[in-house]
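Record type: monomer structure entry
Structure origin: computed from sequence
Chain ID: A
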Amino acid sequence: MIMLSRIILIYISILTVPSHLSGKESDTIKLREVVISGRQSPDIYSGLSRIIHTVSPEAIMGMPVNNIQDILEYFTALDVRQRGSHGVQADVSMRGGSFEQVMVLLNGVRINDPQTGHHNLNIPVNTADIQRIEILEGPGARIYGPNAFSGAINIVTREAGEKNIRASLTGGEYGYIDLYASGGFETGPLGHFISAGNKSSDGFSENTDFNISNIFYRSQTDAGFGTFDLQSGYLEKGFGASNFYTSLYPGQYEKIRSSFTNLTFTTGKRVTYRQSAYWRRHRDRFELFRENPAPWYQGHNYHLTDVSGTNATATIPWSLGNIYFGAEARVERIYSSVLGERTDTPKAVKNEKDIFYEYHKQRRQLNLTAGNSLIFNHFAVSSGVLLSKTDPAGWGMHGGADLSYRFNSAFSWYSSVNQSHRIPSFTEMYYSSPVHNGNPYLKPEQALTMETGFRVITGGWSGHLSTFRREGKNIIDWVRKSDELIWESRNITLINTWGIEFDFAWKRIAGQTFPLSEFRLGYAFLENSRQSENYNSAYVLDFLRHKIVAGMTLPLFHSTRLTLMTVYQDRAGTYTEFLSGSEVSYNPFFLADIGMRYHITEKIVISLDISNLFNTGYADIGNVPVPGRWIRAGAGLVYW
């Protein structure tokens, strides 16, 4: 099923400094500046004015990781709280926000799940499929619409038609097996890319086993009068969810099936027009008791979400920049055994005997955007506004502007002021249990974010130093007082977040003889101040106060590369320790991961990865077990 929709396509461009800034033509310096394109103006989010990180496929393949959530762990501004390892489940937040406040996109298509942000990283691609990952720090509502509250993450897959065959086999401790294959080819004017993968494990402790399968397809063609880009994917996960949501009943289990389809048409050389269509379906079965249910247990929870929409955008260039316009209509539906409003026409749950979705909820969203970007002399300016209507919240208007000044070819200053808002999830509105009360009357979250900083790019060095302040209003969280049992979903009155961040990277350039080929160091500090009653927080008030990321790549003998990645985290907030019943603070911890790649030939590579090298005990989410040291080894083939 394909319905008319919208797309947000994000691309990276390499901009060359004008000759009057760089001196002689032979001395021209290439600046790696990120340009957001496709959704509206091609330079509406110039890398000069905002912090936008990119990860190349070469960097990804060298990392000691096998899933997207572990890649994101290595970014200073991101907080990745893992419940299950190797891509089972993780919550990702940015700059002290919650996991509901980050927009996640696949090739520009928004895949956030309206049921809950716990499902946002259910993405049907393997790490070998990824061409790059783009991370926008800070609000993006005026471009992406509601829910790009604290930032956006876009996973970009390989182009269709790139002729090659890839295959790999990896094995490791705890019965870990990872199989992967992909191919790119052409049939007439059509380019194709298809991949499939499966990974499984017996689990590092009781009820932590998993089995994950996915298939992804992308096709692209130039029809002369315009280009078409079709993508479709399917993901299936089954995993032991030990202590995921409560430690009272640790033997939980979850089964997920997710599929999506998107088609985008682009035309025009000077004035660009895009028409897009997408549809996403997500099914979830949650079992509080995997085996031996209690006598009072009334059955599993079943959820199905459907998201579809239509979008059209136009970009009009002028002498100094671009003007853009956009319109989007989006529909979000949920069918559930517990979430939503009771329906008179229950819907049968597929492949389940005598089980029905007895609850249903639908909401519509209309987004209108307009803006302008321009570059003159050493200045770059972009601004825009979003007019949005969501049932039942009604109309809202949000805008923002970015400004940068380039002192020379290596050094620039930037500043931005942007508004953002987020619509509550269906879980926040409707979930009820013996210890949870949802709230159907939640208001949308709102925030004003101000940021300023400096960027340097020279030789092999690149980096930035920035500070920001986010003033949040009606922030949504699950909270309770210390003497209460029930967690309630509420709009906390006000949360102000202040942060400072730096990230610097060095990459060896031709002619240098330094033994390292790459090095990176980043640090982020956050502070939250709130004006509300004294609540214990499940998510929002548990933020990373300090995070340090350091990594390096060292060439060794005979085409061997060694990559070491380290992360230090110090989390604010507390959790209720299950055994003692006491409210305890999170302990800071240090993790180190190591990966080695040995290229037997240009097309055959042997890999060795060790996660949590020093077998550190730690907690991302209180009472949820996390693995210690985990060793994996494999072999891969690339043929073209």
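Annotation 1: Helices lie at 19-22, 57-62, 68-72, 141-144, 426-430.
Annotation 2: Residues 57-62 form the longest helix (6 residues).
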